Amino acid sequence: MSGGCVAGSNGKPAWARTHTRSTGSAKPGTNPLETANALSIEGRFHHLAGRHGKAIELLERAADLVAPTAAADTVSTFAAPMISNVYAYLAGGYQHSGLFDDAIAGPAGL
Questions:
Q1: Out of 52, 55, 85, 98, which residue is the most buried by the measure of CB atoms under 10 Å away?
Q2: Could you tell me the pTM of the whole model?
Q3: Mean pLDDT of all residues in the chain?
Protein backbone atom coordinates (compact mmCIF):
# COMPACT_ATOMS: atom_id res chain seq x y z
CA MET A 1 0.00 0.00 0.00
CA SER A 2 1.37 3.40 -0.90
CA GLY A 3 1.22 6.52 1.22
CA GLY A 4 -0.91 9.51 0.34
CA CYS A 5 -4.57 10.26 -0.22
CA VAL A 6 -6.95 7.99 -2.01
CA ALA A 7 -8.82 9.88 -4.70
CA GLY A 8 -12.41 9.14 -5.60
CA SER A 9 -14.05 9.16 -9.00
CA ASN A 10 -13.90 12.95 -9.16
CA GLY A 11 -10.15 12.99 -8.47
CA LYS A 12 -10.50 14.74 -5.10
CA PRO A 13 -9.17 13.15 -1.92
CA ALA A 14 -11.87 11.92 0.45
CA TRP A 15 -11.13 14.64 3.04
CA ALA A 16 -11.70 17.36 0.42
CA ARG A 17 -15.08 15.99 -0.63
CA THR A 18 -16.27 15.69 2.98
CA HIS A 19 -14.85 19.00 4.12
CA THR A 20 -16.27 20.95 1.18
CA ARG A 21 -19.71 19.66 2.09
CA SER A 22 -19.23 20.80 5.69
CA THR A 23 -18.10 24.32 4.79
CA GLY A 24 -20.84 24.65 2.19
CA SER A 25 -23.52 24.20 4.85
CA ALA A 26 -21.89 26.44 7.47
CA LYS A 27 -23.86 29.47 8.59
CA PRO A 28 -21.53 32.43 9.20
CA GLY A 29 -24.25 34.60 10.74
CA THR A 30 -25.39 31.91 13.16
CA ASN A 31 -22.09 30.16 13.94
CA PRO A 32 -19.23 32.52 13.05
CA LEU A 33 -16.55 30.75 15.08
CA GLU A 34 -17.43 27.30 13.81
CA THR A 35 -17.62 28.60 10.23
CA ALA A 36 -14.27 30.36 10.64
CA ASN A 37 -12.75 27.17 12.01
CA ALA A 38 -14.00 25.15 9.04
CA LEU A 39 -12.71 27.79 6.60
CA SER A 40 -9.32 27.86 8.34
CA ILE A 41 -8.98 24.08 8.06
CA GLU A 42 -9.83 24.21 4.37
CA GLY A 43 -7.43 27.13 3.92
CA ARG A 44 -4.70 25.21 5.68
CA PHE A 45 -5.09 22.28 3.29
CA HIS A 46 -4.80 24.65 0.32
CA HIS A 47 -1.71 26.22 1.90
CA LEU A 48 -0.08 22.83 2.40
CA ALA A 49 -0.82 21.98 -1.24
CA GLY A 50 0.93 25.16 -2.39
CA ARG A 51 -2.25 27.02 -3.36
CA HIS A 52 -1.46 30.06 -1.25
CA GLY A 53 -3.81 32.45 -3.05
CA LYS A 54 -6.81 30.22 -2.39
CA ALA A 55 -5.62 29.68 1.18
CA ILE A 56 -5.38 33.42 1.80
CA GLU A 57 -8.85 33.96 0.33
CA LEU A 58 -10.39 31.43 2.73
CA LEU A 59 -8.32 32.54 5.72
CA GLU A 60 -9.20 36.21 5.21
CA ARG A 61 -12.88 35.21 5.26
CA ALA A 62 -12.21 33.29 8.48
CA ALA A 63 -10.35 36.26 9.98
CA ASP A 64 -13.32 38.54 9.23
CA LEU A 65 -15.60 36.12 11.07
CA VAL A 66 -13.43 35.85 14.20
CA ALA A 67 -12.54 39.57 14.37
CA PRO A 68 -15.49 40.62 16.59
CA THR A 69 -14.78 37.82 19.05
CA ALA A 70 -11.03 38.55 19.03
CA ALA A 71 -11.70 42.25 19.72
CA ALA A 72 -13.93 41.54 22.73
CA ASP A 73 -12.77 42.32 26.26
CA THR A 74 -12.68 38.60 27.06
CA VAL A 75 -12.24 35.55 24.86
CA SER A 76 -13.49 32.13 25.87
CA THR A 77 -11.29 29.06 25.98
CA PHE A 78 -13.52 27.70 23.19
CA ALA A 79 -12.77 30.63 20.87
CA ALA A 80 -9.11 31.31 21.70
CA PRO A 81 -7.53 28.36 19.84
CA MET A 82 -9.70 28.93 16.78
CA ILE A 83 -8.75 32.61 16.64
CA SER A 84 -5.04 31.90 17.06
CA ASN A 85 -5.12 29.21 14.35
CA VAL A 86 -6.87 31.50 11.87
CA TYR A 87 -4.33 34.29 12.39
CA ALA A 88 -1.32 31.95 12.39
CA TYR A 89 -2.42 30.19 9.20
CA LEU A 90 -3.17 33.53 7.53
CA ALA A 91 0.28 34.86 8.45
CA GLY A 92 1.82 31.70 6.95
CA GLY A 93 -0.13 32.17 3.73
CA TYR A 94 1.03 35.77 3.49
CA GLN A 95 4.62 34.76 4.23
CA HIS A 96 4.70 32.05 1.57
CA SER A 97 3.27 34.54 -0.93
CA GLY A 98 6.05 37.02 -0.19
CA LEU A 99 3.66 39.40 1.59
CA PHE A 100 5.91 39.83 4.60
CA ASP A 101 4.49 43.19 5.73
CA ASP A 102 0.99 41.70 5.76
CA ALA A 103 2.26 38.65 7.66
CA ILE A 104 3.79 40.88 10.34
CA ALA A 105 0.92 43.36 10.54
CA GLY A 106 -1.83 40.76 10.77
CA PRO A 107 -5.47 41.37 9.87
CA ALA A 108 -6.68 44.97 9.71
CA GLY A 109 -8.06 46.27 12.96
CA LEU A 110 -5.85 44.28 15.32
A1: 55
A2: 0.71
A3: 79
Q: What are the two backbone dihedrals, phi and then psi, of residue 57, each rounded to the nearest 5 degrees?
A: -55, -50
Number of residues in the chain: 110
Decide: 32 and 81 in contact? Cβ < 8 Å.
Answer: no
pLDDT of residue 67: 94
The model's pLDDT over 47-74, given as tens digits with 9 standing for 90+, comes to 999 998 999 999 999 999 999 999 999 9
Give the three-state DSSP class for 93.
Answer: helix
- Three-state secondary structure of 24-92: HCCCCCCCHHHHHHHHHHHHHHHHHCCCHHHHHHHHHHHHHHHHHHHCCCCCCCCHHHHHHHHHHHHHH
Q: Which CATH number fits domain 31-105: 1.10.10, 1.20.1090, 1.25.40, 3.30.70?
A: 1.25.40
